[in-house]
Amino acid sequence: MRTEPASTAPALLSELERLCPGGVFQGVPLAQISRWRIGGPADLVLRPGSIEELAALRAFFHREGLPHLVIGATTNLLFSDAGLRPACIQIDQRMAGIEAVSQTEIDAQAGAWAPRVARVAMQMGLTGAEHVCGIPGTIGGLVCMNGGSQRKGIGSALVEAVTVDETGAIGIRRPEDCGFAYRRSVFQDNGEVVAAARLRFEPVEEAGRTRSEVRREMLRIMADRRRKFPQKEPNCGSVFKSNPAMYDDIGPPGAAIEKLGFKGRRIGGALCSPHHANFVVNTGAATAHDTLALITEIRDAVLASTGYEMEVEARYVAQDGSFHPALLPAEA
Ligand SMILES: Cc1cc2nc3c(=O)[nH]c(=O)nc-3n(C[C@H](O)[C@H](O)[C@H](O)COP(=O)(O)OP(=O)(O)OC[C@H]3O[C@@H](n4cnc5c(N)ncnc54)[C@H](O)[C@@H]3O)c2cc1C
Protein backbone atom coordinates (compact mmCIF):
# COMPACT_ATOMS: atom_id res chain seq x y z
CA MET A 1 0.00 0.00 0.00
CA ARG A 2 1.30 3.46 -0.88
CA THR A 3 1.71 5.75 2.10
CA GLU A 4 2.02 9.17 0.47
CA PRO A 5 -0.98 11.49 0.66
CA ALA A 6 -3.79 11.17 -1.82
CA SER A 7 -2.10 14.09 -3.54
CA THR A 8 -3.84 16.94 -5.22
CA ALA A 9 -2.92 15.79 -8.74
CA PRO A 10 -5.56 17.18 -11.13
CA ALA A 11 -6.43 13.74 -12.56
CA LEU A 12 -7.02 12.34 -9.09
CA LEU A 13 -9.13 15.31 -8.05
CA SER A 14 -11.30 15.13 -11.13
CA GLU A 15 -11.86 11.39 -10.58
CA LEU A 16 -12.82 12.05 -6.94
CA GLU A 17 -15.15 14.86 -8.03
CA ARG A 18 -16.77 12.42 -10.47
CA LEU A 19 -17.28 9.83 -7.70
CA CYS A 20 -18.38 12.35 -5.06
CA PRO A 21 -19.82 15.38 -6.86
CA GLY A 22 -19.70 18.60 -4.82
CA GLY A 23 -18.06 16.77 -1.90
CA VAL A 24 -14.31 17.26 -2.52
CA PHE A 25 -12.49 19.78 -0.30
CA GLN A 26 -8.74 20.47 -0.22
CA GLY A 27 -6.57 21.88 2.59
CA VAL A 28 -9.27 21.83 5.26
CA PRO A 29 -8.08 23.30 8.62
CA LEU A 30 -9.02 20.69 11.23
CA ALA A 31 -8.73 23.36 13.93
CA GLN A 32 -11.76 24.99 12.30
CA ILE A 33 -13.92 21.95 11.64
CA SER A 34 -13.09 19.65 14.55
CA ARG A 35 -15.11 19.66 17.75
CA TRP A 36 -12.02 20.23 19.94
CA ARG A 37 -10.93 23.01 17.55
CA ILE A 38 -7.48 21.40 17.37
CA GLY A 39 -5.45 20.04 14.46
CA GLY A 40 -3.43 21.03 11.42
CA PRO A 41 -4.69 20.93 7.83
CA ALA A 42 -6.30 17.87 6.27
CA ASP A 43 -5.01 17.57 2.69
CA LEU A 44 -8.26 16.17 1.35
CA VAL A 45 -11.74 15.85 2.87
CA LEU A 46 -14.47 13.99 0.98
CA ARG A 47 -18.11 14.28 2.00
CA PRO A 48 -20.19 11.62 0.22
CA GLY A 49 -23.84 12.34 -0.46
CA SER A 50 -25.06 8.72 -0.52
CA ILE A 51 -24.13 5.16 0.42
CA GLU A 52 -23.29 4.51 -3.24
CA GLU A 53 -20.85 7.43 -3.31
CA LEU A 54 -19.27 6.21 -0.06
CA ALA A 55 -18.87 2.71 -1.54
CA ALA A 56 -17.46 4.09 -4.81
CA LEU A 57 -14.86 6.18 -2.94
CA ARG A 58 -13.73 3.22 -0.83
CA ALA A 59 -13.56 0.96 -3.90
CA PHE A 60 -11.47 3.57 -5.71
CA PHE A 61 -9.00 3.98 -2.82
CA HIS A 62 -8.75 0.20 -2.53
CA ARG A 63 -8.02 -0.22 -6.26
CA GLU A 64 -5.43 2.56 -6.20
CA GLY A 65 -3.81 1.33 -2.95
CA LEU A 66 -4.37 4.75 -1.36
CA PRO A 67 -4.86 5.02 2.42
CA HIS A 68 -7.86 6.84 3.79
CA LEU A 69 -9.83 7.18 7.01
CA VAL A 70 -13.45 7.77 7.93
CA ILE A 71 -14.79 10.23 10.48
CA GLY A 72 -18.17 11.60 11.56
CA ALA A 73 -18.78 14.84 13.44
CA THR A 74 -15.34 14.59 15.20
CA THR A 75 -16.93 14.79 18.66
CA ASN A 76 -14.67 12.04 19.98
CA LEU A 77 -11.50 12.88 18.07
CA LEU A 78 -8.27 14.77 18.68
CA PHE A 79 -6.36 15.53 15.48
CA SER A 80 -2.59 15.82 15.15
CA ASP A 81 -1.06 19.31 15.09
CA ALA A 82 0.50 18.23 11.77
CA GLY A 83 -2.94 17.58 10.27
CA LEU A 84 -3.82 14.63 8.04
CA ARG A 85 -2.07 13.33 4.94
CA PRO A 86 -4.38 10.53 3.75
CA ALA A 87 -7.76 11.38 2.30
CA CYS A 88 -10.42 11.74 4.98
CA ILE A 89 -14.01 10.67 4.27
CA GLN A 90 -16.32 12.67 6.51
CA ILE A 91 -19.86 11.32 6.78
CA ASP A 92 -22.00 14.27 7.78
CA GLN A 93 -25.13 16.26 6.83
CA ARG A 94 -24.78 15.28 3.18
CA MET A 95 -25.71 11.71 4.17
CA ALA A 96 -28.16 12.22 7.00
CA GLY A 97 -31.58 10.83 5.95
CA ILE A 98 -33.92 9.58 8.68
CA GLU A 99 -36.97 7.48 7.79
CA ALA A 100 -39.59 5.59 9.79
CA VAL A 101 -39.78 2.11 8.24
CA SER A 102 -42.39 0.62 10.58
CA GLN A 103 -44.21 1.68 13.73
CA THR A 104 -41.16 0.81 15.83
CA GLU A 105 -38.21 1.06 13.46
CA ILE A 106 -36.20 3.94 12.08
CA ASP A 107 -33.60 3.89 9.31
CA ALA A 108 -30.92 6.51 9.80
CA GLN A 109 -28.07 7.19 7.40
CA ALA A 110 -24.69 7.33 9.13
CA GLY A 111 -24.47 11.12 9.00
CA ALA A 112 -27.81 11.61 10.78
CA TRP A 113 -27.45 13.66 13.97
CA ALA A 114 -28.04 11.33 16.95
CA PRO A 115 -30.19 13.80 18.95
CA ARG A 116 -32.41 14.25 15.88
CA VAL A 117 -32.96 10.50 15.69
CA ALA A 118 -33.91 10.53 19.39
CA ARG A 119 -36.42 13.32 18.70
CA VAL A 120 -37.95 11.45 15.74
CA ALA A 121 -38.34 8.35 17.94
CA MET A 122 -40.10 10.38 20.63
CA GLN A 123 -42.38 11.98 18.02
CA MET A 124 -43.27 8.48 16.76
CA GLY A 125 -44.41 7.58 20.28
CA LEU A 126 -41.35 5.40 21.00
CA THR A 127 -39.14 5.14 24.06
CA GLY A 128 -35.54 3.94 24.40
CA ALA A 129 -33.69 6.64 22.50
CA GLU A 130 -33.82 9.21 25.31
CA HIS A 131 -30.26 8.45 26.45
CA VAL A 132 -28.79 9.69 23.16
CA CYS A 133 -30.79 12.92 22.98
CA GLY A 134 -27.85 14.99 24.24
CA ILE A 135 -24.96 13.21 22.49
CA PRO A 136 -23.58 15.53 19.83
CA GLY A 137 -22.47 13.03 17.17
CA THR A 138 -23.60 11.16 14.07
CA ILE A 139 -25.36 7.80 14.12
CA GLY A 140 -22.34 6.22 12.38
CA GLY A 141 -19.98 7.53 15.08
CA LEU A 142 -22.43 6.48 17.79
CA VAL A 143 -22.64 2.89 16.48
CA CYS A 144 -18.85 2.70 16.07
CA MET A 145 -18.34 3.92 19.67
CA ASN A 146 -21.45 2.08 20.97
CA GLY A 147 -22.13 5.47 22.49
CA GLY A 148 -24.86 6.23 24.96
CA SER A 149 -25.46 7.54 28.42
CA GLN A 150 -27.09 6.42 31.66
CA ARG A 151 -25.23 3.10 31.38
CA LYS A 152 -26.74 2.37 27.97
CA GLY A 153 -25.26 1.97 24.50
CA ILE A 154 -26.89 2.40 21.09
CA GLY A 155 -26.00 -1.22 20.23
CA SER A 156 -29.01 -2.49 22.19
CA ALA A 157 -31.37 -0.68 19.77
CA LEU A 158 -29.63 -1.82 16.58
CA VAL A 159 -31.58 -4.16 14.29
CA GLU A 160 -28.97 -4.10 11.56
CA ALA A 161 -26.27 -1.88 10.13
CA VAL A 162 -25.55 -1.32 6.46
CA THR A 163 -21.78 -1.39 6.12
CA VAL A 164 -19.18 -0.65 3.46
CA ASP A 165 -15.94 -2.62 3.72
CA GLU A 166 -12.48 -1.55 2.59
CA THR A 167 -13.06 -2.87 -0.93
CA GLY A 168 -16.26 -0.85 -1.28
CA ALA A 169 -18.57 -3.87 -0.87
CA ILE A 170 -21.90 -3.08 0.79
CA GLY A 171 -23.03 -5.57 3.46
CA ILE A 172 -25.36 -6.03 6.40
CA ARG A 173 -24.27 -6.57 10.00
CA ARG A 174 -26.59 -7.89 12.68
CA PRO A 175 -26.04 -6.91 16.33
CA GLU A 176 -24.37 -10.26 17.08
CA ASP A 177 -21.71 -9.45 14.42
CA CYS A 178 -20.94 -6.04 15.91
CA GLY A 179 -19.01 -7.01 19.07
CA PHE A 180 -20.82 -4.42 21.15
CA ALA A 181 -19.36 -3.83 24.61
CA TYR A 182 -19.02 -0.73 26.75
CA ARG A 183 -18.05 2.01 24.24
CA ARG A 184 -16.68 -0.70 21.92
CA SER A 185 -17.69 -2.25 18.59
CA VAL A 186 -15.93 -4.17 15.84
CA PHE A 187 -16.10 -1.06 13.67
CA GLN A 188 -13.24 0.44 15.69
CA ASP A 189 -10.89 -2.19 14.25
CA ASN A 190 -12.35 -4.13 11.32
CA GLY A 191 -12.07 -1.47 8.61
CA GLU A 192 -15.81 -1.45 7.92
CA VAL A 193 -17.77 1.76 7.80
CA VAL A 194 -21.33 2.07 9.05
CA ALA A 195 -23.33 3.60 6.21
CA ALA A 196 -26.77 3.37 7.84
CA ALA A 197 -28.43 1.85 10.87
CA ARG A 198 -31.89 0.41 11.44
CA LEU A 199 -32.90 1.07 15.05
CA ARG A 200 -35.83 -0.35 16.97
CA PHE A 201 -37.45 1.29 19.99
CA GLU A 202 -40.41 0.37 22.18
CA PRO A 203 -43.89 1.90 21.85
CA VAL A 204 -44.54 4.12 24.87
CA GLU A 205 -47.78 2.30 25.76
CA GLU A 206 -45.97 -1.05 25.97
CA ALA A 207 -43.48 0.53 28.35
CA GLY A 208 -46.32 1.96 30.44
CA ARG A 209 -45.37 5.54 29.58
CA THR A 210 -46.71 8.45 27.56
CA ARG A 211 -45.12 10.48 24.81
CA SER A 212 -45.13 13.60 26.97
CA GLU A 213 -43.30 11.74 29.75
CA VAL A 214 -40.63 10.73 27.25
CA ARG A 215 -40.43 14.31 26.00
CA ARG A 216 -40.08 15.64 29.56
CA GLU A 217 -37.35 13.09 30.28
CA MET A 218 -35.41 14.24 27.22
CA LEU A 219 -35.70 17.88 28.33
CA ARG A 220 -34.49 16.90 31.79
CA ILE A 221 -31.52 14.96 30.39
CA MET A 222 -30.52 17.92 28.21
CA ALA A 223 -30.88 20.40 31.09
CA ASP A 224 -28.75 18.12 33.32
CA ARG A 225 -26.06 17.93 30.68
CA ARG A 226 -26.04 21.71 30.23
CA ARG A 227 -25.63 22.09 33.98
CA LYS A 228 -22.96 19.39 34.45
CA PHE A 229 -20.80 19.77 31.34
CA PRO A 230 -18.70 22.73 30.23
CA GLN A 231 -20.65 24.62 27.58
CA LYS A 232 -18.37 27.34 26.27
CA GLU A 233 -14.94 25.89 25.59
CA PRO A 234 -14.47 23.27 22.84
CA ASN A 235 -14.12 19.73 24.18
CA CYS A 236 -14.77 16.12 23.26
CA GLY A 237 -17.02 15.07 26.11
CA SER A 238 -15.73 12.65 28.75
CA VAL A 239 -12.05 11.94 28.24
CA PHE A 240 -11.95 8.75 30.32
CA LYS A 241 -14.35 5.82 30.27
CA SER A 242 -16.09 4.79 33.44
CA ASN A 243 -14.86 1.51 34.93
CA PRO A 244 -17.42 -0.43 37.03
CA ALA A 245 -14.87 -1.69 39.59
CA MET A 246 -13.36 1.76 40.03
CA TYR A 247 -16.85 3.27 40.13
CA ASP A 248 -17.91 1.03 43.03
CA ASP A 249 -14.63 1.60 44.82
CA ILE A 250 -13.99 5.35 44.47
CA GLY A 251 -16.55 6.73 41.99
CA PRO A 252 -16.53 7.86 38.36
CA PRO A 253 -13.38 9.21 36.64
CA GLY A 254 -14.44 12.83 37.23
CA ALA A 255 -14.59 12.29 41.01
CA ALA A 256 -11.19 10.56 41.13
CA ILE A 257 -9.58 13.31 39.04
CA GLU A 258 -11.20 16.07 41.09
CA LYS A 259 -10.04 14.49 44.35
CA LEU A 260 -6.44 14.79 43.13
CA GLY A 261 -6.88 18.54 42.63
CA PHE A 262 -6.72 18.53 38.83
CA LYS A 263 -9.63 20.90 38.21
CA GLY A 264 -8.06 24.01 36.69
CA ARG A 265 -4.74 22.25 35.89
CA ARG A 266 -3.48 23.61 32.58
CA ILE A 267 -0.84 22.58 30.05
CA GLY A 268 -0.48 25.22 27.36
CA GLY A 269 -4.01 25.90 26.12
CA ALA A 270 -5.47 22.62 27.45
CA LEU A 271 -7.34 22.86 30.74
CA CYS A 272 -8.86 20.26 33.07
CA SER A 273 -12.31 21.81 33.26
CA PRO A 274 -13.15 23.51 36.57
CA HIS A 275 -16.75 22.59 35.69
CA HIS A 276 -16.26 18.81 35.33
CA ALA A 277 -12.90 17.14 35.91
CA ASN A 278 -13.41 14.44 33.24
CA PHE A 279 -13.44 17.12 30.53
CA VAL A 280 -10.32 18.64 29.00
CA VAL A 281 -11.24 21.88 27.28
CA ASN A 282 -9.46 24.00 24.70
CA THR A 283 -9.11 27.50 26.15
CA GLY A 284 -8.32 28.91 22.73
CA ALA A 285 -4.90 27.88 21.49
CA ALA A 286 -4.53 24.32 22.78
CA THR A 287 -2.41 22.02 20.66
CA ALA A 288 -2.86 18.28 20.34
CA HIS A 289 0.42 17.94 22.22
CA ASP A 290 -0.86 20.06 25.17
CA THR A 291 -4.03 17.98 25.29
CA LEU A 292 -2.27 14.60 25.12
CA ALA A 293 0.22 15.72 27.79
CA LEU A 294 -2.57 16.78 30.17
CA ILE A 295 -4.62 13.62 29.61
CA THR A 296 -1.52 11.47 30.18
CA GLU A 297 -0.61 13.37 33.36
CA ILE A 298 -4.14 12.86 34.72
CA ARG A 299 -4.20 9.17 33.81
CA ASP A 300 -0.78 8.60 35.45
CA ALA A 301 -1.72 10.50 38.63
CA VAL A 302 -4.97 8.55 39.09
CA LEU A 303 -3.11 5.28 38.48
CA ALA A 304 -0.43 6.17 41.05
CA SER A 305 -2.98 7.24 43.63
CA THR A 306 -5.73 4.63 43.21
CA GLY A 307 -4.21 1.71 41.30
CA TYR A 308 -6.88 2.09 38.57
CA GLU A 309 -5.64 2.71 35.04
CA MET A 310 -8.45 4.68 33.43
CA GLU A 311 -9.13 3.91 29.79
CA VAL A 312 -9.23 6.89 27.44
CA GLU A 313 -12.44 7.26 25.43
CA ALA A 314 -11.23 10.11 23.17
CA ARG A 315 -9.34 8.91 20.09
CA TYR A 316 -6.20 10.56 18.74
CA VAL A 317 -5.82 10.70 14.95
CA ALA A 318 -2.16 10.80 13.89
CA GLN A 319 -1.13 12.55 10.69
CA ASP A 320 -0.90 9.17 8.90
CA GLY A 321 -4.61 8.67 9.68
CA SER A 322 -4.12 5.97 12.33
CA PHE A 323 -6.30 6.03 15.45
CA HIS A 324 -4.87 5.73 19.00
CA PRO A 325 -6.05 6.32 22.56
CA ALA A 326 -5.52 10.06 23.19
CA LEU A 327 -2.34 9.67 25.28
CA LEU A 328 1.35 10.44 24.94
CA PRO A 329 3.65 9.07 23.56
CA ALA A 330 1.49 8.95 20.44
CA GLU A 331 2.83 11.26 17.77
CA ALA A 332 1.44 14.79 18.25
C1 LIG B 1 -20.06 17.60 24.79
C2 LIG B 1 -19.93 16.15 24.46
C3 LIG B 1 -20.64 15.21 25.16
C4 LIG B 1 -20.55 13.85 24.85
N1 LIG B 1 -21.29 12.97 25.57
C5 LIG B 1 -21.23 11.65 25.26
C6 LIG B 1 -22.04 10.70 25.98
O1 LIG B 1 -22.82 11.04 26.87
N2 LIG B 1 -21.93 9.40 25.63
C7 LIG B 1 -21.10 8.97 24.64
O2 LIG B 1 -21.07 7.76 24.36
N3 LIG B 1 -20.33 9.84 23.94
C8 LIG B 1 -20.36 11.16 24.23
N4 LIG B 1 -19.59 12.05 23.54
C9 LIG B 1 -18.61 11.55 22.55
C10 LIG B 1 -19.14 11.49 21.12
O3 LIG B 1 -20.16 12.44 20.93
C11 LIG B 1 -19.65 10.12 20.72
O4 LIG B 1 -18.61 9.16 20.81
C12 LIG B 1 -20.21 10.12 19.29
O5 LIG B 1 -20.96 8.96 19.11
C13 LIG B 1 -19.15 10.22 18.21
O6 LIG B 1 -19.81 10.50 16.98
P1 LIG B 1 -19.08 11.32 15.81
O7 LIG B 1 -19.97 11.34 14.64
O8 LIG B 1 -18.66 12.68 16.31
O9 LIG B 1 -17.81 10.42 15.52
P2 LIG B 1 -16.28 10.86 15.39
O10 LIG B 1 -15.85 11.51 16.66
O11 LIG B 1 -16.07 11.60 14.14
O12 LIG B 1 -15.58 9.43 15.28
C14 LIG B 1 -15.49 8.59 16.40
C15 LIG B 1 -15.02 7.21 15.92
O13 LIG B 1 -16.07 6.67 15.13
C16 LIG B 1 -15.58 6.33 13.84
N5 LIG B 1 -16.66 6.59 12.91
C17 LIG B 1 -17.29 7.76 12.68
N6 LIG B 1 -18.27 7.59 11.79
C18 LIG B 1 -18.24 6.28 11.44
C19 LIG B 1 -19.00 5.47 10.56
N7 LIG B 1 -20.00 5.98 9.84
N8 LIG B 1 -18.70 4.15 10.45
C20 LIG B 1 -17.69 3.61 11.18
N9 LIG B 1 -16.92 4.32 12.02
C21 LIG B 1 -17.20 5.64 12.15
C22 LIG B 1 -14.35 7.22 13.62
O14 LIG B 1 -13.45 6.61 12.71
C23 LIG B 1 -13.79 7.26 15.02
O15 LIG B 1 -13.02 6.12 15.30
C24 LIG B 1 -19.68 13.42 23.83
C25 LIG B 1 -18.95 14.37 23.11
C26 LIG B 1 -19.08 15.72 23.40
C27 LIG B 1 -18.31 16.72 22.60
Task: Give the arrangement of secondary structure elements.
Layout: H1 10-19, E1 24-29, H2 30-33, E2 41-46, H3 51-64, E3 68-71, E4 77-79, E5 87-90, E6 98-100, E7 105-109, H4 114-123, E8 126-127, H5 139-145, E9 158-164, E10 170-173, E11 193-200, E12 202-203, H6 211-228, H7 244-250, H8 253-259, E13 266-267, E14 270-272, E15 280-282, H9 288-306, E16 315-317, E17 323-325
Parallel strand pairs: 2-5, 3-5, 4-16
Antiparallel strand pairs: 1-2, 6-7, 7-11, 8-12, 9-10, 9-11, 13-14, 14-15, 16-17
Bound molecules: flavin-adenine dinucleotide (FAD).
Residues 35, 70-77, 91, 110, 135-138, 140-142, 144-145, 147-149, 187-188, 193-194, 229, 235-237, 315, 323 line the site of flavin-adenine dinucleotide (FAD).
Provide an overview of this structure:
A hairpin with a 5-residue loop joins β16 and β17. This protein has a 5-stranded antiparallel beta sheet with strand order 6-7-11-9-10. It has a 4-stranded mixed beta sheet with strand order 1-2-5-3. Strands 4-16-17 form a 3-stranded mixed beta sheet, with no helix packed on it. The chain has helices spanning 10-19, 30-33, 51-64, 114-123, 139-145, 211-228, 244-250, 253-259, 288-306, and strands at residues 24-29, 41-46, 68-71, 77-79, 87-90, 98-100, 105-109, 126-127, 158-164, 170-173, 193-200, 202-203, 266-267, 270-272, 280-282, 315-317, 323-325. Helices cover 29% and strands 20% of the residues. It is built from 9 helices and 17 strands. By secondary structure, it is α+β, with helices and mostly antiparallel strands. The longest helix has 19 residues, at 288-306. The protein folds into 3 domains: 10-93, Uridine Diphospho-n-acetylenolpyruvylglucosamine Reductase, domain 2 (2-Layer Sandwich); 96-225, 2-Layer Sandwich (Uridine Diphospho-n-acetylenolpyruvylglucosamine Reductase, domain 3); 230-325, UDP-N-acetylenolpyruvoylglucosamine reductase, C-terminal domain (Uridine Diphospho-n-acetylenolpyruvylglucosamine Reductase, domain 1), CATH 3.90.78.10. The model has no long low-confidence stretch (mean pLDDT 95). It is globular and about 55 Å long. The two termini are 24 Å apart. The protein binds flavin-adenine dinucleotide. The site of flavin-adenine dinucleotide has 33 residues, from β3, α5 and β11.
